[in-house]
């Protein structure tokens, strides 16, 4: 399916449906968005075929070229001091970037630069698109962040994320007690005593993290662990909370009891979104994106006696 993003909307070349179908049903199925949203677009005249808005009951039985209105014009950006970001994956509807440390994903009410603004700058250079983050990373975390370039793709990827079909794999260096591999299943809720902090709580939301130990070392009177983690759920601070609850918080994560280390930049924590896997809603193809380790990890691992060789062989 050919999709082209323009400043005024999205041009879509739909293939022939598997059987004659009402246009609302076929648009919903092909674009992976709810029929209710398609009908909303049709009611407001935002969907056009050869210049006319079809009825949601109109039967389609052949390839169709569709225009959908959306304001995707370049956006004026207030911040002039945006850091460069590395693009890891790019197609007409999706973008994955490598988030650096100490950068907010979205605005927090201050004038601090954000990853959203950095991505919008890239889309401005492309000529069209909106920077819609599909998921977030904490300020001190690095690695893969997925963006949709228009509202239809955002809805499609939100549904994929909610259904657990976006696979997010992280790497961390932790310090503390020995980490037991397996599945950490412990609900997470707000910490009522510390603003912005979360904790394992019987009344919290279900949270499951898959844990794999890659290397361990005893150095300087402490135990250090290189660990791979996969999110089954996506609670706020989930990995940080779960590792802290195991007695081995992420290095640099002082909010959860982590040990600072001079190899890390101020505010950086040793948590990295290393890999992102999903099935592309439009192409129907599997996509895998990897983010290289931050430079600080080489020195950090060497200082605490951990080997990163297992990651280099992957």
Q: Would you summarize the structure shown here?
A:
This protein has 314 residues and is an alpha+beta fold.
Q: How much is the average pLDDT? A: 95
What's the number of extended β-strand segments? 18
CATH superfamily annotation of the largest domain = Pseudouridine synthase
Radius of gyration based on Cα positions: 22 Å
User: What's the quaternary structure here?
Assistant: single chain
Estimate the strand proportion: 25-35%
Describe what this molecule looks like in 3D:
It comes from Alicyclobacillus acidocaldarius subsp. acidocaldarius (strain ATCC 27009 / DSM 446 / BCRC 14685 / JCM 5260 / KCTC 1825 / NBRC 15652 / NCIMB 11725 / NRRL B-14509 / 104-IA). One of its GO terms (molecular function) is RNA binding. It catalyses: a uridine in RNA = a pseudouridine in RNA. Belongs to the pseudouridine synthase RluA family. This is RNA pseudouridylate synthase. It is a single chain. The chain is an alpha+beta fold and 314 residues long. Strand 13 and strand 14 form a beta hairpin. It is built from seven helices and 18 strands. The radius of gyration is 22 Å and the shape is elongated. The protein folds into three domains: 68 residues, Structural Genomics Hypothetical 15.5 Kd Protein In mrcA-pckA Intergenic Region, Chain A; 77 residues, Pseudouridine synthase, CATH 3.30.2350.10; 146 residues, Pseudouridine synthase (2-Layer Sandwich). Strands 7, 8, 9, 10, 11, 12, 15, 16, 17 and 18 form a ten-stranded mixed beta sheet that branches. Strands 1-2-6-4 form a four-stranded antiparallel beta sheet, with no helix packed on it. A two-stranded antiparallel sheet has the order 3-5. It starts with a strand and ends with a helix.
């Amino acid at each position: 399916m050919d999709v082209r993003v323009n400043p005024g909307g999205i041009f879509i070349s739909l293939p022939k449906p598997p059987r004659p179908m009402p246009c609302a049903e076929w648009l919903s199925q092909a674009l992976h968005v709810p029929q209710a949203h398609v009908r909303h677009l049709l009611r407001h005249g935002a969907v056009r075929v050869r210049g006319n808005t079809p009825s949601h009951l109109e039967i389609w039985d052949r390839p169709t070229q569709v225009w959908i209105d959306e304001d995707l014009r370049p956006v004026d950006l207030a911040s002039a001091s945006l850091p460069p970001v590395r693009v890891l994956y790019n197609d007409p509807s999706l973008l994955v970037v490598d988030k650096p440390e100490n950068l907010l994903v979205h605005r927090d009410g201050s004038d601090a630069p954000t990853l959203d603004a950095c991505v919008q700058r890239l889309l401005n250079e492309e000529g069209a698109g909106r920077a819609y983050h599909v998921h977030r990373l904490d300020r001190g975390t690095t690695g893969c962040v997925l963006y949709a370039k228009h509202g239809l793709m955002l809805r499609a990827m939100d549904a994929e994320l909610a259904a657990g079909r976006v696979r997010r794999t992280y790497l961390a260096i932790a310090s503390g007690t020995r980490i037991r591999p397996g599945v950490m299943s412990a609900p997470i809720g707000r910490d009522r005593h510390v603003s912005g902090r979360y904790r394992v709580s019987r009344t919290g939301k279900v949270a499951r993290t898959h844990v794999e130990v890659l290397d361990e070392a005893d150095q300087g009177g402490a135990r250090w662990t290189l660990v791979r983690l996969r999110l089954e759920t996506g609670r706020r601070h989930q990995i940080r909370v779960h590792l802290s609850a195991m007695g081995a918080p992420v290095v640099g994560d002082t909010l959860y009891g982590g040990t600072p280390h001079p190899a890390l930049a101020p505010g950086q924590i040793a948590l990295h979104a290393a890999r992102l896997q999903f099935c592309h809603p439009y192409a129907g193809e599997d996509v895998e994106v990897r983010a290289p380790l931050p430079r600080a990890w080489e020195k950090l691992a060497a200082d605490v006696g951990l080997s990163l060789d297992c990651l280099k062989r992957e």
